[in-house]
Amino acid sequence: MAQQVIGFVGAGNMAASLVGGMIAKGIRPARIWMSDVSEQRLTDLARQHRVHVTARNEEIAERCDVLVLAVKPQLMAEVCAGLKAQFGDRTPLIISIAAGVTVDNLRSWLGDVPVIRTMPNTPALVQAGATGLYAGAGVTEEHRQLASQIMASVGLTFWFEQESELDAVTAVSGSGPAYFFLLMEAMIEAGEQLGLSSHTARQLVLQTAWGAAQLAITSEQAPAALREQVTSPGGTTAAALDVFEKAGLRKLVDDALTAARDRARELAK
């Protein structure tokens, strides 16, 4: 990643996770700056990661070659206005992790600078994320490599040629963890109804979810094939899956992800 200085505007959980992942991958803390409105948050991060911290976003804009925008979408326009005033003749690479904020939005607020929009998900907090990336006008191959290295520090990265594809990424992986959490929640409640203690039901469900994910990740077979392997004709698994299929689970999932995609489009406007 050469010796570019990387600044984070906003030091929330996702930004902190990225910084932790970058340092774990060998990026020197001395090359990282973070700004935030919370002095306590900055103090804690400086102590934990040995990075530079400041309460002034303008200092990040003045010092850094790469700016990772990690503020709430509703604050982005105001934050960008303050950053732009400090750029002068410089053209730092902008990487946004804010949902629903388009490349055109950012360039209208920041001027003619290279912008990469990303869509990470919350498993990035434990270095198990999936991030979609889209490069706007003026983004070079070096910029793409920089962004890939930063976002890959917390999981897998996927580049897309059309910004609109990030709406589908939002529906599948951005919102995706919540779908699995809902299924876990429902299975835990069902286990309790079947007579298991709350603790036992929770541990069984979480371990099963983790194990199933590991099997799917490490196997060369598709999830459909893995499902078939554990489904004996006329057995217990087949009885449960038959209920899911008759209730239209596949159609329900399709409708849910379509609704999430459509909502992402609305927010982007």
From TrEMBL:
Residues 6-100 form the Pyrroline-5-carboxylate reductase catalytic N-terminal domain. The keyword NADP applies. PROSITE patterns: P5CR (PS00521). It is found in: Cytoplasm. Keywords: Amino-acid biosynthesis, Cytoplasm, Membrane, NADP, Oxidoreductase, Proline biosynthesis, Transmembrane, Transmembrane helix. Its EC number is 1.5.1.2. Pfam families: F420_oxidored, P5CR_dimer. It is an enzyme of class 1 (oxidoreductase). InterPro entries: 6-PGluconate_DH-like_C_sf, NAD(P)-bd_dom_sf, P5C_Rdtase_cat_N, P5CR-like_CS, P5CR_dimer, Pyrroline-COOH_reductase. Pathway: Amino-acid biosynthesis; L-proline biosynthesis; L-proline from L-glutamate 5-semialdehyde: step 1/1. Its main location: cytoplasm. SUPFAM superfamilies: 6-phosphogluconate dehydrogenase C-terminal domain-like, NAD(P)-binding Rossmann-fold domains. It catalyses: L-proline + NADP(+) = (S)-1-pyrroline-5-carboxylate + NADPH + 2 H(+); L-proline + NAD(+) = (S)-1-pyrroline-5-carboxylate + NADH + 2 H(+). Residues 163-267 form the Pyrroline-5-carboxylate reductase dimerisation domain. The keyword Membrane applies. GO terms for molecular function: pyrroline-5-carboxylate reductase activity. The chain crosses the membrane at residues 6-24. Belongs to the pyrroline-5-carboxylate reductase family. Catalyzes the reduction of 1-pyrroline-5-carboxylate (PCA) to L-proline. This is Pyrroline-5-carboxylate reductase. It comes from Alcanivorax quisquiliarum.
